Amino acid sequence: QQQGLLGLAFSALSSLSNTVGYYAGYECNWFDALKLTNPVFGFYLSNYNDGDDGEVTFGGYDATKYSGEPVWFPLVNTTTDIHGIPSPGWWTFSTKGWSWSVSSVNGSIGGSLFEENPRAIADTGTSYLILPQDVLNSILTILGATFDNDPEVQAIVLPCNNTLPPIVLSFNGTDFSIPTEFYTIFAGTTTAGQNICVPGLGAASESIPLIFGDTFLRAYYSFYDKKNLRVGFAQAVHPTSVATTATGTVTGVSSATKSSPYIAPTGSVTGILVSSATKSSTAAVFILYLVFSVLLN
Ligand SMILES: *[C@@H]1O[C@H](CO)[C@@H](O)[C@H](O)[C@H]1NC(C)=O
Ligand SMILES: *[C@@H]1O[C@H](CO)[C@@H](O)[C@H](O)[C@H]1NC(C)=O
Ligand SMILES: *[C@@H]1O[C@H](CO)[C@@H](O)[C@H](O)[C@H]1NC(C)=O
Ligand SMILES: *[C@@H]1O[C@H](CO)[C@@H](O)[C@H](O)[C@H]1NC(C)=O
């Protein structure tokens, strides 16, 4: 469950843009108030089987949490963008030239939504990877996702045994591969003892843009650069490679997450200008206020 909002996008999104602070139910531009020499931050999100904590770093990035060089994307002018927010507002980048593939099927990312200027936002506050509806449908079909009609479930499900192929998003020859253990979300166990997993994917709509949410951001460390107005991604380094199991069980999921497929990004806060008092904070950290959680009841 989210405990608050830590606004890390641009002040155009803030309800209290002149207020310094954080949370209190609003996004505030406290990040600017830190007056960091290097006005950047980076996110590592733990994968739920890893047992480690997520981490946000201010004033720099944590090189132990990613490998390779980040691939950068300039922010696009969002004047005509999502919900009429002036630019810059969200961490919005163009998805022109992006494509997707699963197994040997391949298509573009853009879709009918934002046809003239296809773009997405990077957002730790969104649990899932939000794709155009047609792309989502194609991917779910290829993955063999089925609707589980059990009255206790009533949801589109995937096998829990991490046997599915990765979802690959590509840009200009760079592949961003999301292995099955990152997009297969453990949602709980039925009273009959059956583990239920759901795809960590959602569909964009008129009111919901394409979003590179936690499903993507667990697999890729994300770089937010306010100075150069760009966002970047590099392969996240997780403490262990997650063992795939053929038994159909998912281990390492705390009881807190069992009631919901939403995996809260818990973890420490590191970096300059952050006191040790805040380091123990396990408050969920969100960039924006779009939070998607799907409860299986
Ligand atoms: C975005 O585009 C609008 C319209 O072309 C322009 O007025 C505005 O200055 C631009 N903003 C930025 C930050 O580039
Ligand atoms: C899909 O095909 C195009 C054209 O052949 C290629 O440039 C792109 O890299 C492919 N995308 C993926 C995700 O494989
Ligand atoms: C695509 O990759 C080439 C070769 O690395 C690079 O020169 C070019 O700037 C890239 N294009 C974009 C749009 O990123
Ligand atoms: C994985 O789970 C699916 C659905 O539960 C099952 O059909 C498949 O045989 C399992 N694969 C392995 C390798 O256990």
Can you put this structure into words, describing what you see?
Strand 9 and strand 10 form a beta hairpin. Helices cover 11% and strands 30% of the residues. The two termini are 16 Å apart. By secondary structure, it is mostly beta strands. Mean pLDDT is 74; it is low at 16-28 and 242-297. The chain has a 6-stranded mixed beta sheet with strand order 3-18-17-1-2-19. It has a 5-stranded mixed beta sheet with strand order 4-7-16-8-15. It has a domain at 63-266: Cathepsin D, subunit A, domain 1, CATH 2.40.70. The structure holds 2-acetamido-2-deoxy-beta-D-glucopyranose (NAG) (4 copies). Residues 99-101, 106, 168, 170 line the site of one 2-acetamido-2-deoxy-beta-D-glucopyranose. One 2-acetamido-2-deoxy-beta-D-glucopyranose is lined by residues 77, 79, 87-88. It comes from Physocladia obscura. Keywords: Aspartyl protease, Hydrolase, Protease, Signal. It holds the Pfam family Asp. Belongs to the peptidase A1 family. Residues 1-234 form the Peptidase A1 domain.
